[in-house]
Amino acid sequence: MIQAALHLTIAAIICLLAGGAPPSIFLVSLTLALLPDADTPKSIIGSLMRPVSAWLERRVGHRTGTHSAIAVAAVAALAYLVAPAWWALLAGCYASHIALDLLIGRQGVQLLWPAPEWLTIAGWRDDGAAPRRLLIALLPLLLFVAVWPQLGIALDQPLRAAAAAANPIATTVPTRTPQPGMSVSFELPPGVPFSAVTVHADDVIAEGQILARWDLPNATPWPTPTTPRGEPSPTPVSPAVVVPPPPSDRSALVLGLAELSAAQRTQVAEREELRLRHEREQGEARRRRDQAAIELAQLQPLHEREQAEAQLSVDTVAQDFAAAQAALSATEGDGIPQAEEHLRRAQAAIAEALNAQTRMRTEQGVEREQLELALSQTQGDLDALPGRQDAERGALASRSAAELARAQGRVDAARSALDTDAARAEDSYGRAQATAQAQARATSTAAATGWQELHAAQVGAHATASAATAAALPTPAPSQIISWVAGRVIRVKAEQVDGQLIVSLEIATE
Questions:
Q1: Which of 379, 408, 437 is the last residue of a domain?
Q2: One domain for residues 189 and 111
Q3: How do 182-188 and 204-205 pair as beta strands?
Q4: Sign (positive/negative) of CA torsion 484, 485, 488, 489?
Q5: Could you tell me which residue, 491 or 216, shows the higher pLDDT?
Q6: Cα–Cα dist 32/334, whole Å
Q7: Confidence of residue 78 (pLDDT cuts 50, 70, 90)
Q8: Is the domain of 366 the same as that of 498?
Q9: 99, 219, 254, 481: which could join 212 in a potential S-S bond, CB 3.0 to 4.6 Å?
Q10: Long-range CB contacts (< 8 A, 24+ apart) of 419-427?
């Protein structure tokens, strides 16, 4: 109970110091301050969730996984997803429990779990005087933090009055600060820096005064026209004659080659996929085998701890039985029936403790046999895996060889048929070549005439564009900003909005 009160007190102090936490966050923080002890049913929160806490204590152990840095990181991540504004407060309340357990308890906590090392700082006894003294010291601090906001408001005015009475010279008469009477804003053109502004804070400006000045080159209204290309040669040049190859039915060969290439690519992909799958299967089998071995290795310390606790219970009831026997021997008269009843209850308690110890050992034996059987099965699966994978690789190689042989046969057949048709198409190809040469010579003469007409049109268009460019007068771009108000500059600000620099002046007109 002392530990639970300490955990709740520290969490409440943290919440009050953070300030502004709503009631729901405050209640969740108090719950998180007790949550690490959910790994044992002997705690307050563990008794409320006994099946879960008993399973955690049997599988993981008390002050191990839930008292580790991994658990703090998991709580912080979950709190950031659920309540981003309060994730640090929630994680801090959970971590405060672990920090206090580093002080209380001889054994300490496994802060670096799953590493087996136990860490402690002070090693205070759970039922010792140190936890009580710490609680007595924290309760006034909790009360002070809780009432400080109201106490500060109540003491503010008396403290100010006392300070004024103690030092009346320090109480000055406030003077009215001149307020800006107008705000002037203007945009600077793209590329103009803030240094173009010519006024500063506390400057006195007049109407018509220049507020900013810059120099920008004037843009040309039209681009300079491109010089036309030189006049083409009037001599017609016969272009190279391109005659399509003789017609041939190459579809069968193309299909065969495509099928052969696709088969080769598919086989490479299948071999790679099979190799990756085999590696995943081997890794998964090793992982299952190692996990079973780890669970079996972790079972022994847990069983030893449970056996020690059961033996302690048996020793305790045995001591009660011996005390009842001694009391019965020393009792006389009317107290004998009561002493005998006490002795019978002690005997029943011994029998119940022994039966519980026997059941626990039986359950431990069954659990160990199950884990040993699981380890044996995973090792058998790992040993049988290479043979099965070799069989799969052999089957894939046989199937790939058959597919390649079929595709290569179709390609050879298509090439044979194509060679037979090539001789018959050679004569037709020669005649088509001569006809194409004659048509090319006639086209070359017509193209030369067209090029000359196009060159004359380009020269006229260039002359027209050059005259328009020379006659164009560009509009001068603005190069300064002139003030239309007078007064003293209070503040100069600059802000960039959508790539545009906007300058604002606050001017006092009085």
A1: 408
A2: no
A3: unpaired
A4: negative
A5: 491
A6: 55
A7: very high
A8: no
A9: 481
A10: 421/248, 421/249, 422/246, 422/248, 425/246, 425/247, 425/248, 426/246
C-alpha distance from residue 150 to each of 11, 154, 156, 160, 343 (Å): 21, 6, 10, 16, 62
Residue 386 lies in a domain: yes
In sign, the C-alpha dihedral spanning 14, 20, 25, 27 is positive
State pLDDT tens for residues 155-172: 666 766 676 666 555 444
- Is residue 125 a part of any domain in this protein? yes
Q: Phi and psi of 182, rounded to 5°?
A: -160, 150
CA dist 319 to 223, 313, 326, 336, 345, Å?
110, 10, 11, 20, 13
Q: pTM, whole model, 2 decimals? A: 0.34
Going 13 to 18 to 24 to 29, the CA torsion angle's sign is: negative
Based on the domain organization, do 300 and 352 belong to the same domain? yes
Domain of 51? Answer: 2-165
Whether 155 and 7 share a structural domain: yes
Q: Which of 366, 387, 408 is the last residue of a domain?
A: 408
Pairwise CA distance, residues 235 & 383, whole Å: 86
> 3-state class of 397 per DSSP?
helix
In a domain, 177, yes or no: no
In a domain, 175, yes or no: no
